[in-house]
Predict the 3D structure of the following.
Amino acid sequence: MPLPRTRGKALRQRLAELRGPDVPPKALDARALAALAANPGCQRRAILDGAGVNKAVLASALGSPSAFGQSQFAFTRGNAFEAKVKRDGGAELLRLVHEKLDRHAEPPAEAQVPDLLATGPEGRAARTALALREATAAPGTWTLLDHPMLALDVAGSPAFLEPDAVVVHPDGSWTVVEIKSFPMLDGAADPAKVGAAARQAAVYVLALEEVAARLDPAPRVRHRILLVCPKDFSNVPTASAVDVRKQRAVTGRQLARLTRIEDIADMLPEGTCFSPELPAAELTSAVESVPATYAPECLSACELAFHCRDRSRAAGAVTTLGRSVRAELGGLSTVEDVLAAARGESGDPEDPAVAALRRAARLRAQALGQEVTPCR
Ligand code: SF4
């Protein structure tokens, strides 16, 4: 739900102060929004993204530069593959959409590819909305929107998003298409990469649903998207339908939470600022004033991962061992607590995690021929 105008303005002002004087906001893209959903409990990431802080620059200023970014070679290869998939008016791409998602429709012999050129992101988003409306009003035709521009309300201001393609089916429904350069081997791709692509596509689905909601009747935005990748080790396109309902629900919840980043902002000490111009010590204490929930997954999703991992390790937090280990350990949140519980020095023996740790410690001691400490 959009914020009331004055409240939204006050929040924007507050977020600008957090970013620092004269620091331009970094636009949120679908990848960043999708990464938010990968760690939904992290307030640190939520406020930094909501304030438009450039986390890569911030990580460097903190002395823990991120290892993010695509190599120039991978970038060029990805662009060449996408151009191949879309050549001849998107004939191959539309064939794949028909084959994987809409076999009962007429094959896409003739398709519309509207011109989406306009000035600025707002202009392009308006042009895309018009093209979608016109395509939906022309039943029985296939329409390919190449690099449309979508706007999604995030924390009271629009984030502009550019999917690889959106296809309007003959029945007027809309499908998001994601084109990736990682290979699909024997019909399956790396699950981690497919998961990231699904989260990204879910953001586009949410943005498309906002466009659809303004039409009457609202067209159906499909929740199965098309993921197009190179087949095996070739450059031949192949595709798979990916159900993004779960990712859409998680990301939708996260975005709703992002619009309440004012709650996180209100908890911060007066004068908190994340400007990279600040001395490292001051910047570190500003970043540390926001609670974080580090997990190893952050390494592939967030620019601050090295900083948060170092802090988490220094604090002996068990989150550095992964979410599943963290969940198994119940209320034991530090390595020190875990070891003390295993040695029988602390912890409730009725607690299943403590009991399991003591059993494991006894077995270890027996295996090593050490003296077994009786449980207390
Ligand atoms: S790296 Fe840090 S800021 Fe980023 S999501 Fe993980 S815990 Fe949050």
In short: Residues 39, 42, 44-45, 292-294, 298, 302, 304-305, 308 surround iron/sulfur cluster (CB under 6 Å). Residues 329-367 form one domain. The mean pLDDT is 89. Residues 79 and 181 are 9 Å apart (CA to CA).
